[in-house]
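Annotated sample (chain length 244).
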Amino acid sequence: MCWDISLHTDIEIIKKTFPQLRDERRQLDYNYDYLENVQAITFPKYPILYKDKDSSQLALTEMEWGVLPTYIDDPKLQADRRRNMINVRSERILEDKKSYWYRLRKQRCLIPVSGTFEHRAVKGWKKKVPYFIGEAGRELFYLPGLYQWHETVDEDGVVERVGSFGMLTRAANEVMANIHNDGPNKHRMPLFLPEDLERQWIEDINEEDMPPIFRFEMPNEKLKHYPVYTLRGYPNRPDGKHWI
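Output written by the structure step:
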């Protein structure tokens, strides 16, 4: 949790919201206009907004979901640890000044989404029920995250700069606690924010400005939520329709 998000709207809306945005995206093999279900388990590339430290300009680029723990050399151990760095507990970013998240506290990003997914356990049912969760009245909104850059070298010796990010979470509100009611990280939810706090997160804020953002709890009535078709197993619905 949260390991599934979707983006089913025109990515150009982002440019209208942030007109000074610099587009750094590469040509990828998927269509930004309809990303039904992006699953973090494979560390996929995904469009995010971040502020370049050198130019202080807001940019749109693609980064891998799941912060890469560069302090681990063994590839298998690194991948195992990385699965625990897909999400970031917002409460812990400033608590432990020796933590990895504290190091990244100034490297903040926004993750454009149409919604997220979570699974609800129902007593007596073998399988959990997947739900779509979005912000009421918003076709596109932004979840706060932290990011980092690292370098990779391919077999030809070409060095490439690769970004990776983690999504901020908090304790669940009443609606999300009812949906995300099972598992080791139950009663957690993405840090849904109103527009003003989204913009504040991406600005040059001080540490004392961050806790109020972390403590914001989205009111129940501001979230839209409903069951959807299975997110696991079949790559497509048998009836040819979309998941949501």
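Annotation: The CA atoms of residues 8 and 34 lie 4 Å apart.
Annotation: The first strand starts at residue 4 and ends at 7.
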